[in-house]
Specification:
Distance between the termini: 28 Å
Radius of gyration: 15 Å
Number of helices: 4
Order of helices and strands: EHHHHE
Organism: Dictyobacter vulcani
InterPro entries: HAD-like_sf, HAD_sf, PGP-like_dom2
Structural class: mainly alpha
Protein name: Haloacid dehalogenase
Mean pLDDT: 83
Amino acid sequence: MAIKAIVFDIGGVLEHTPDTGMMEKWEERLALPAGEFSVRVMQAWGAGALEDIPASVLHQNLCEATGMDDAQANAFTEDFWKDYLGIPIPN
């Protein structure tokens, strides 16, 4: 029997994602009140979790919701993925 699919799960199941303070660091960079940045990011990306939205639209939503320019949004997205993917959980 040939393998037809491989399913990977991220988000705390197969890896450990400790709080690194990444969101707070971006909050400080953008001079936003405590907790505000996370709220804005969730508003910007929320639709992407529920719908098929192009990455370019998510990027634009992020810029509009947070006030970041393209370079900042790209840097944040890179930081976000590094933070979100975490490290493998040891056996």
